[in-house]
Amino acid sequence: MARTGPGPGWPEDGVVIAARAGDAASIAALVSAAHPHVRRFAHTLCASEQDAEDAAQEALIVLFRKIGTLRATAALSSWMFQIVRHECVRRARALRRRATPVPEPTVISAEDDVLRRLEGERVAVAIAALPADQRCVLVMRDVQGMPGRLVAQQMGLSTAAMKSRLHRARTALRAELGSEDG
Q: Mind listing the pLDDT tens digit for each residue in 144-163?
């Protein structure tokens, strides 16, 4: 009995092996089968729907161009998800660079600057310690300022489920930051 590819909905090993060998029909079948998985994953990572679509397309282009470099058929899904993750991070960094900086007050004491940086680091460490689902909702809603309905849609959740995760994330963050004060 032939094992199927990396998971449900992925093509069988034979298709992946033929694609690695350069078979055009197998490459097309592989790209087609990978598309929904890659797209869904991109939507959980990227800040906007457009960035997610672009990241998914970029990952599929990399798949098309570099399938011959894949060493093991079982590694296909993790390889694809790594490409998507890299592309989403790249797009987030580019967005951050394009953002216009907020003007700072003209005179900031060195002490205030150090305290502001330390507080920012504390918050970043506390956010990083949250479970992935809570961290993602918190970042999309509170850091990136996305509307709740859009966050729920991008995460594939109901609005109520998104609000519940956001509440748990905020509560955990508040508790973590409060515990460090004492």
A: 888 889 889 988 999 999 99
Angle (nearest 5°) at CA 117 between 112 and 123: 125
Q: 110-174: which CATH number, 3.30.110.70, 1.10.10.10, 1.10.287.1080, 3.30.300.30?
A: 1.10.10.10
**CA dihedral over 90, 94, 99, 102, signed as positive or negative:** positive
End-to-end CA distance of the chain: 61
The token pair at 49 is: 């729907």
Q: Which CATH class is domain 13-98?
A: mainly alpha
SS3 call for 108: coil
What are the Cα distances from residue 118, in Å, to 25, 104, 112, 143?
A: 55, 17, 10, 18
Distance of CA 168 to the CA centre of its chain: 20
pLDDT tens digits, residue range 65-85?
888 888 777 778 888 888 888
Contacts of 36 (CB under 8 A, 6+ apart): 9
Residue 153 tokens read as 């849609």
Count of H-run helices and E-run strands, the chain: 8, 0
Report, as an integer, the average pLDDT of 14-27.
87
